[in-house]
Automatic annotation (TrEMBL):
The keyword Ligase applies. Keywords: Ligase. It comes from Curtobacterium oceanosedimentum. This is O-succinylbenzoate--CoA ligase. PANTHER family: LONG-CHAIN-FATTY-ACID--COA LIGASE, NONRIBOSOMAL PEPTIDE SYNTHASE PES1 (EUROFUNG)-RELATED.
Amino acid sequence: MNRPLVAIGASDPSAVLRGLEAALAGGPALLPVAEDAPALPAPPPSHVAQRVALVVETSGSTGTGKRVALSSDALLAGAASADAALGGPGRWVLALPTHYIAGLNVLTRSITAGTTPIVVPPGHFDGGAFADAVDRLDVGPGAPRRYTSLVPVQLARVLDDPRATAAATRFDAVLVGGQSTPAPLRQRALDAGVRVVTTYGASETSGGCVYDGTPFGTVRAELADGALELSGPMLAEGYLDDPERTARTFVERDGHRWYRTGDAATIDDDGRLRVLGRLDDVIVSGGEKVPLGAVERRVRELPGQDAAVVTRRASGEWGEVPVVVTERSIDLDTVRAHVAEALGRAARPAAVLVVDTLPMLASGKPDRRAVRALADPEGAPSP
């Protein structure tokens, strides 16, 4: 038995909210679409399996298009576990696009709490507009807590605006995810009195399911040859019209269904998870493996480099080398010394490229394909 799949423009968060309410109640499945995003090669189907309530379409930061199918059970399980981890349901400020899972999670959690989110106007994120939205947040007796969800670049803009920073301190939790949050940025927020919760997850896990390094609810995390796998009731059904990719990504083991994240990670004796970066984001430089994610985290520890991106460039001498792309100038020798201290000589960036504006996706993540094209115009893959 199938149900209709209805596409809705994500530029109208109210329409997406109504469509998601209907989908969770058993109505047509919802596909929020960004009107200005490039279309995936194949059009979406007109109908989906009865269990599917939401389809999240993403090209990803590296250009791998997919449509993730999520059930009502998965979405509601994720929302319930998140509420429990945060201390209860609440009222939300929506500052993220509603065609991305983090923005859709704000809507799902608002629906389950019986509240209506306050929407920051779509488009360029502005600290003043964020503060205005917080001023409109009226906490009711049924949902006494306040929440919002941001990506790191948005948090940085909040902290650059005194009024927005003061507004952020009024939340019981400010979820920050979508990419690694630089340690200095997190500390800066905590010093300002902002209760930051770093999140990790994906569309395939109904959004964030690891808070501050700890899987919430019944979520389980394990390593398979250094690769992170997650299990729990929030897992997606799979990918629409792509059974091969579904079979590669979702596997059965020990009586549980697991999602292969494609990320390298460590798990300490207390079960605390630390994500190291993408397994496929490793270069070989001078015969040594260099994880670009680790280099990027090290660079972002330096003053003013919270948003710096590390990419690869072809090298006739070394094979490939790391390159820092940033909006703020920094001395190359300083960067190389700081990186080498922790990661060794092979990990030292070969160059710092200063740009006026880093290419970004609508989700607030760096557009890594575009960044690589800036650093290595001849070697970057074509779109």
